[in-house]
Design brief:
Strand order of the largest sheet of chain B: 4-3-2-1-5
Domain Sm (chain B): 13-85
Number of strands of chain B: 5
CATH class of chain C: Mainly Beta
Order of helices and strands of chain C: HHEEEEEEE
GO cellular component, one term (chain B): P-body
Shape of chain C: elongated
Chains: A alpha+beta, B mainly beta, C mainly beta
CATH architecture of the domain at 23-81 in chain B: Roll
Distance between the termini of chain B: 39 Å
Strand content of chain B: over 45%
Helix content of chain C: 10-25%
Main location (chain B): cytoplasm
Subcellular location (chain B): Cytoplasm; Nucleus
Radius of gyration of chain B: 15 Å
Shape of chain B: globular
Number of domains of chain C: 1
Oligomer: heterotrimer
Pfam family, one (chain B): LSM
Amino acid sequence: MLFYSYFKTLVGKEVTVELKNDLAITGTLHSVDQYLNIKLNNIRVVNEQKYPHMLSVRACFVRGSVVRYVQLPPGSVDVELLHDATRREARGG
Amino acid sequence: MADGGEAPSSAKTPADFLKSIKGKPVVVKLNSGVDYRGILACLDGYMNIAMEQTEEYVNGQLKNKYGDCFIRGNNVLYISTVRHH
Amino acid sequence: MAEEENTVREPLDLIRLSLDEKVYVKLKGERELRGKLHAYDQHLNMILGDVEETVTSVEIDEETFEEIIKASEGDSSRMVPYLFVRGDGVILVSPPLRS
């Protein structure tokens, strides 16, 4: 639940989601669920020349399992809070 | 043998094997074909593995060394004991 | 109890002891990451900071069948301030050398 809880704190912030098929999408995080499925609004594809078919898409739902990385906004990463949450999670199993 | 009976000591389950090789030199082969040779520190039910003094072999060639390393269980094809490390 | 905290009883303890340390992560697709470990869970989902990603592509020379390895320089290496990494792509995690 750690990352689900963490991603909920990022709602409204801009993130870049990199998929396993190398497509990278920047957008405003609209919502996230327990599987780390993600809905993004106001999206733009990072490499538009390579993926012109996404030009007209404004919002998208990304299945959690196809995500490789999410680039996080530096101002929204509280390192101490993450350490504490991780230690708590590790104890709980 | 009746249900619930003790297995004879010669009949080893995979779990018994895994328990018996902790602290021993092993080769771990991944699905990708890469081999890791080192001392097995511990493992869990997902076949996640912690190893020490690990050497990474790609196509039989030494590519990397790690003091400690964690291998995610889903990548593991097999774990084998070795005579020499 | 401090002793208890520092022992490796299960593989994930190795990761726990690497919190707030620089780690090396080998991923599927010939990708490697080096960065500071800020968070992880039992799936090996992780948040890394000051991350360097290296993508290695191997090309086979059609004439000689020799493997030409293109690594680390230029386009194939980049820095990211903070990165969430999905655990299912992880092959190996190596903590820094401990005494």
